Amino acid sequence: MSLKSLSTVFLAAATLLGVQQANAGVNATLWGIYSNDVKFSPKTVENAYLELEYYGQTGPIDWYGYFDAPKYFGGNDNIKGVWDKDGSKLFAENQPKVSFNRLTGKDLSVGPFKDWFFATDWIVDAGGHSNNSQNTLYYGLGTSIDTHTKLGMNVNVFAKQQWENYGAPNSYTSDDGGRLQVQFFYPLYSFNNGASLNYFTFTNYDFGSKLGDKDPNRTNEALVSTHVFSYNMKHLRLFTAARYFHNGGQFKDGAVANWGNGDFVQNSTGWGYYVAAGYQF
User: Fold this and answer.
1) Of the candidates 134, 136, 59, which has an alpha carbon nearest to the alpha carbon of residue 95?
2) CA dist., res. 25 & res. 275, Å (int)
3) What confidence score (pLDDT) does residue 14 get?
4) Residues 32 and 56 sit within 8 Å (Cβ to Cβ)
5) 211 near 247, Cβ under 8 Å?
6) Section 130-139 average pLDDT
7) Beta-carbon count within 10 A of 186 CB
8) Hey, what domains does the chain have and what are their CATH numbers?
9) At 138, is the secondary structure helix, strand, or coil?
10) Average pLDDT, the chain
11) DSSP state of 267
12) CB-based contact 231:263 (threshold 8 Å)
């Protein structure tokens, strides 16, 4: 994908989301994000990038997703982005889910479980070749839970369909474990000017994979827990986030690997962080 076509993708997505916002309650935010010590790879990544995020609701469907231009503003040598040869021109994650309550028009709640969803999470990294690309689909059942407080809670349980996975041995595997995802949201404070301060956290626990059985430097389980504090005005959005990785990307922390340039010790457990500023359309 050329830089011109990448710009076209972002413009088309922004135009589409603008139309959806006007007609159906879907919002879009353009972010500039800086991250460091990110451990989805065993070599720690620094990345300053552009992101277009969308979120909202139309009928029975809850929408959430984003499109990233990796390393758009810069980063370290452990990541290849839009300006690099064979770098990732686009990273995207889309998480639509369908509410059974709204789809059927009936209250299907059971005790504290308010609503049920067919939930998905589709992750694509458009790298320059198969060893630099990802295409993963998670799909399963989700529920929203009434905590009887201002704390919002959602739980999703996914199976996984794996296509490209950066050349890993579990590429093109239809049954390679699953994912438990737990999400919390809490409104911390509302200001007189209409701004709000919020806390959002989500944890992904990947389990049941056979990748660690095929590669001694990989694992069958991984955990990533993300904690976000956001400040939201009418259009301006600011956030800072801390993210904890345990064997991030299913790379075994402390294992010795060699990618053709000498041995190195994999660093895939610990904290990473993010800071960002955005504008909501």
Assistant:
1) 136
2) 27
3) 46
4) no
5) no
6) 92
7) 14
8) 24-278 (2.40.230.20)
9) strand
10) 91
11) -
12) no
